[in-house]
Amino acid sequence: MTTPTLGRLETVPALDRPDLLADPVAAALRGWPLADRIGVVEIDPAIADTAALAEAYDLPMTTGANCVVVAGRRDGEERVAACLVRADTRADVNNLVKRTLDVRKASFLAMDRAVEESGMEYGGITPIGLPDGWRLLVDPRVLQIEVAVIGSGVRRSKLLLPGALAAELPGAEMVEGLAG
Q: In degrees rounded to 5, what are phi and psi of residue 156?
């Protein structure tokens, strides 16, 4: 299988560079039969944020997909989900995510908790290798991205994958209208 490429980003197969992946991401990829379709690119951590990366590599914002972590409570039970949305949109946390999780109020998980529980760096959290118990909600528009740029679990690299592959991520739930 060919590793995806995009613009000036020099990719290699993700599992060839486990040093560019957070441990949970590398472990998840090693156990996923479609991992050979995912590339990794080393970047300057200072440009890990989507807008900075897009500007530095002359990429349209429509190539990025962001993963945000949200949580809410119902009947004393906390419900956590990672939401994968196109970078040119925002997750509808106050309405659709709240209803999907069936919680009274949904909000972004505190940065320190998201980092600690995911085993990933802030600004690099990705839908690959999420903790057990976290749901993965995916906006179907991500599937339309020819080559999507997502986090790798660390700020010093990004993963590239065909957007359609997001539907095949372990636990992925397609949620129409997840982002606006």
A: -90, 10
Superfamily of structural domain 12-172: YbaK/aminoacyl-tRNA synthetase-associated domain (3.90.960.10)
When computed from its CA atoms, the radius of gyration of the chain, rounded to whole angstroms, is: 15
Q: Kindly compute the dihedral angle of the four CA atoms of residues 11, 53, 152, 149, in this order, to the nearest 10 degrees.
A: -70
| Spatial distance between the Cα atoms of 42 and 159, rounded to a whole number of angstroms | 9
All structural domains of the chain with their residue ranges: 12-172
Q: What is the pTM of this model?
A: 0.94
Alpha-carbon distance of 105 to 61, in angstroms, equals: 29
Identify the pLDDT of residue 9: 82
Closest Cα partner for 37 from 173, 156, 128? 128
- Distance (Å, rounded) from C-alpha 19 to C-alpha 94? 37
> Along the chain (180 residues), what's the average pLDDT of each consecutive run of 10 residues?
74 96 98 96 91 88 94 95 96 94 95 96 95 97 96 96 96 95
Of 56, 71, 85, 94, nearest to 151 (Cα)?
85
